[in-house]
Amino acid sequence: MTSPTSQTPRRKHTKSRNGCETCKRRHIRCDETSPQCNNCTKYKHRCPYQDVLENGQRESTLIKANLLWTSEIEAEIRSWQQTGRSSFPSLCVFPAIPFENFSPEDLRLIHHVASISSELCTSDSSNFTIWVGQVPLFLEIGATYSFVMNSLLALSASHLAWLTGCPLTSNMAFEHRGLALKGLHEAIGSFLRENSDAVLAASLLLSWQATEWRDWTRLMHGTSSIIDAMQPWKNESQFEDFIAEKSTFPTAPPSPDTPFNCPKHADLDALRLASVQLREVEAYLKENMGGTEAITQLINFVEGLRTLSPSDTTTQRFDMLDPLRTWLLWLPVMYVQQTQMPLSAFVVLAYYYTIALIVEPLFPEIGAAYFGSLSLNPIEEIARRLVSLNACQTSQVDLHTALNFMAYPMDMACKFRIRMGLALPERVALLRQLIYTHRVRAMGREHVVITSGLAPAAMSSLSLDVVQKIM
């Protein structure tokens, strides 16, 4: 018989005693890895361990960060520091960027986004992405406002971290975001007409990088308030077009745990149709020896959304969309930077952007409409490029197929505009009609039903003079 004084042996302590403050606040075990614990890396947080690093230690971590240095880039950056000049058009701004005030690592981050901007602008491809076309403007504003420059440096580091998978590069992004947020809060405290574009620029850059619902919704509400304050001088703003689309900004629920209603049957049907369309693209790529990894990844994402439940909270739904937000930011740049971008890549990109439009009714409170509005222009620009190519290369079979696949993205873009109350520019309407005319000819039918209710163009050839109207 067990003695009444005997005790059950104590269970071994499994909790971290010296864990970081973020893990303690979340009540999860910290592995105490320095300078970035695994939990903070997983959830894309800046680990508090970084705050206890000595200056010398911080410098050594920056040197080890994978920034994709090459000997050519090192030489170019040394030239910047010595001459104060750069060959990139996007860096020729006034006032000039004081290169001598930046560390070599930060100059590498500037070089990264400036080189992408220069390359894509030269090939007239920047509009196939969400952010590259805005880099020259962000650099121009950042030359005067350091918090805008830090926001852009954070974006650059985030892209490099995505390319390399290096956690130390992610740390650089976290640090620049922290500096940007601090400067943004100070600028908001002294908000004036003169600094309003800078405040809006930083808010946009940081909102694209937000990985948590709370951070993102604060930025969205703040941006919305900034746009309201800018109404008296909106026509003078460098972001005039963006301000005009404020209707796509979400009104986030008051709590991250707010439940939702059941998804509507029509919205789930739209997901099913999207899956069918994506599988047609996948089948074509397999048949023609094209890479299917990206389209298969998107199919799996869409299939996962079909399990959406009313019990899913705001935070959970925001996390569901996180992969799509990441893909929309980085995948297009990777595709467009290919030496010779295949026609199938145009289609794959268009379908990624289209899914951002499809999911909007399922996630109205957490920014689906916001990213949907950012996806409109790339879809329409891809269609414009393909129509333009078709006017000059009418015998290319792959080009005809790519145009046929573009009918669905263009239809979804039109539906989104109607749903959001956005204007349908004449050029876009004509472009859509041309796409449908081509599809009708390819199918050998006399007419086609357009689900949005807009009639297709008359059955005429894609003449060069018509194409010029959409350029």
Overall body shape = globular
Helix percentage:
55-70%
Estimate the mean pLDDT confidence.
82
Strand percentage? under 5%
Q: How many individual β-strands?
A: 0
Oligomer: single chain
Helix/strand-derived class?
mainly alpha
Count of DSSP-assigned helices: 20
Radius of gyration: 25 Å
Task: Domain count, please report it.
Answer: 2
- Main sheet, how many strands, which sense, barrel? none
Distance between the termini: 92 Å
The poorly predicted ranges are 1-13, 53-62, 445-464
SSE series: HHHHHHHHHHHHHHHHHHHH
Describe what you observe in this structure.
This protein is mainly α and 471 residues long. It folds into two domains: 69-244, no CATH class; 265-468, no CATH class. 61% of the residues lie in helices and 0% in strands. The protein is built from 20 helices and no strands. The protein has helices at 21-26, 38-42, 55-64, 71-83, 104-122, 135-142, 146-164, 167-189, 196-209, 213-229, 240-244, 265-287, 293-305, 314-336, 343-358, 368-392, 397-405, 407-420, 426-443, 464-468. The termini are far apart.
